[in-house]
## 1
Amino acid sequence: MDEKIFDRTEKKYVISRAEYNYLVKIIKTHMEKDEYFKSSIYNIYFDNDDYDLIVQSIDHPLFKQKLRARSYKGYDKVFFEIKTKLNHRYLDDSDENKGYKRRVLVTKKDYRDYVNNKADFITIATRKTEQKTDYQIAKEIDYMIKYFDLKPKILVMYDRESYKGEDNLRVTFDTRLKYRTTNLKFSKNPADKPYFDDKKCIIMEIKAKGYIPLWLVHALSEKQIYSQRFSKIGNIYKKIRKEQNVIQ
């Protein structure tokens, strides 16, 4: 969990439990469980009061970026991440999204100090920095927060299973997708709302440095499982707006 900068091609799929069972059997013959095979993930997305970053993301622009704080159940640290995506559809007619993440690691106490205005971000993010990249990423995040007037707005949580393979191939399955807009702490809460009406819906992500291997392409084709655009925060935001009966 100590990577600071990385890029990859990402494809997303919303699948059924039956499709999950079929794919996992094949995946287990080609891949192994990740070091953090099972985890509960909490993402707090930052935005301004007009939700400019999320709204821009929904419009599928050439370039988009998000800022989030991510933590894992039982883990006393928080990843502050700038997540950007470049839509290749505008460049070469492909349907691939190239994703980049830049992040710094802080303690949960430092995170609380920041959101409670007890410390500025550039200070807490570089207290224990050992690499120049840490300081540079911290400056980018600090600038982004100030420029867009960002603050914690939506918490998104889910349980994940992770598999890793050759050439940095990674396949993840996310279940029990939930969200809330109040009491934004890295923990469960009675206010949590499920996103899917069908609890059996699973979000699968394939992340690769290059091409998806043929064995996996064939497995997906066999069951006619196709990739689709699915932004967790984007779809949750639209559901929240619908619940509030706000017409965009």
## 2
Amino acid sequence: MAKEGNKAPAFTLAGDDGKKHKLSDYKGQKVVLYFYPKDNTPGCTTEACDFRDNMTKLKRKGVVVFGVSKDSLASHEKFRTKQNLNFTLLSDEDTKVHQKYGAWGEKNMYGKKFMGCIRSTFLIDEEGKLAKAWNKVRVKGHVDEVIEAIKEL
């Protein structure tokens, strides 16, 4: 599990922009990596649109944002188009990157236990260190928390 202050776990994932994205390619930039359960669901749409609506502020601070789920690239492309998202969605269909970051685990819904995405966000600094981690994110107000943490870097 990724811990604040440690080097962020490396990853290479395909993006809905047709490119492979490696964390090491973004050295020298701040990266927000947020894990969400599923494209086109209410909470995930709210979170994605909140990042979209704050992208100007984030870019001004030199931040690159990636949304990550186990959805396919085709699903990501539809989601990004439908919601007019202005950042890249990465596909982690085998959940290996989710697991490296501690964003995959047991969930409980209506008394049923199952494995799934734990909504989480990670702020990675210019040196590739994990500056801040939010686990079990509540969508409302979350992007504001991320922006405040970026200001403190």
